[in-house]
Amino acid sequence: MTGTEKAKADGKLTANGMADGSKTYNLEALEGFDKDNLSAADATGNGIDVSGYASFTLAKTAANFPKGGGKYDVSTLVTDDTNAGNGTITYTEDGANSTITGGVLDVADGDKASTVTVTITKATSGSGDSTLAAFSRKVTFTQASTAATISGATYNANTGALAISGANLPETVVGWDFTKLKLQGIGTTRSDVTLEAHSADTSTADRFQGAITSAGTVMTITAHGDKRTDLNQILHKNGTEYSSSNDYNIDAAADFAGLGADADSTIAVTVSGVGFTLSKAAAKFDSVAAKYDVASLVADNADVGNGSISYALTGTSLNRGTTVSSAGLWTINTADRAKNDIVVTITKAASTGFKSHVRKLPFSAYAGAATITSAAYDYSTGVFTVVGTNLPETIAGYDLTDIDIEGAGTAVSLTAHATMGANRAELSRLSAIGFTITVHGTLKTSIDAKFDRDGTSSTGSAGYNFKASGGFIDTSSTADESSNTITVSNHS
Length: 492
Hints:
Strand content: 35-45%
Oligomer: single chain
Distance between the termini: 87 Å
């Protein structure tokens, strides 16, 4: 077909493929369509596969611009750009006062109460048999019924990601004005940071880059380089506040997200990824325990490897022997083992983008000595589950070589705690009232030989017992050698 006949067909067959949206292409044949006028009508089921358009699809055919007017990146609506690179795409709009520049629709005040239709056209490309016809689609824009509001935000100090949540937020990044957002916290030289305009230029190290996480409800702004450092200097403690009178906050000026967005100076920010957290709020040591692994108290160490961690002790008339090693091991001096006013201060030094981070944790001694009351042994897995009172909370407080396993024949002594090696005993799940020991290799074989059946004694009536000599916690600890019955299960 050519001329007017082709134009008529083009008006019906408007996109590549078998359909255009809800419109399915079909060739309807009337009765007598053959040259002898003998054929019956064939009106349905004759699909037409269309090609030859410089085609693309749209993410949506209707969109909202911010209440009061604002910007929308209409280029984000183009998806599946067939024959990309051939046939330029242009954007036009029918608003009396609106403009489109560089694919960005700017709805001015005079058009904010009306709908604005944007026509997206891909130009003709190619030549001869390779010609692709021009292709157009229309998107209708209407003003959002409600102005944008922010309900809250989160900030991750490790990634620099500020995720802002709300309602009726701009659907594209250009609808935002980051320069109207101020982060408020507390720092040594400043207490607020005003954001700068969005930049996706990866060659620029120090920038704020926005991305729509969920259209209309979540915008994520990532601070890069020195910009992340600036934010981390004032948002340097996990949670919603630095202290009871210093909340983390976003102060949003009017028109931060379109010309109708109201100012809001009370937007809470929840911070994560800073420093470290502690595994407990207070700790105890046995009155005769020789060592405590203070480093084991540090959990969720954000920014691992940056900012060294150090440990210090304070208390009334502490003996010098209570200093903590650089590895976090506290050797408890004899003169201090009964004190209840010891505090360990754990400090993570400042590093690039992070302020120093300090936590304090009180220590006190148990009222009584450590005791073991019973144990269970799973023959199939080699796991001892031990129950007691006032037991050391860290592996450093134990000496497993002073523990013997009694049963049939000669008792078997445990080896020192180890996490690697074929033949070893491994401590875990420590608390004041119990711990587990998993035995491996030939050590397990030797211990299994003590237990020739399930229960609490052997076939020869030898009692199964967990014998703790005087040094199982420290050389001065009280021995707990008898009546620590072991109950064996899962014997093969």
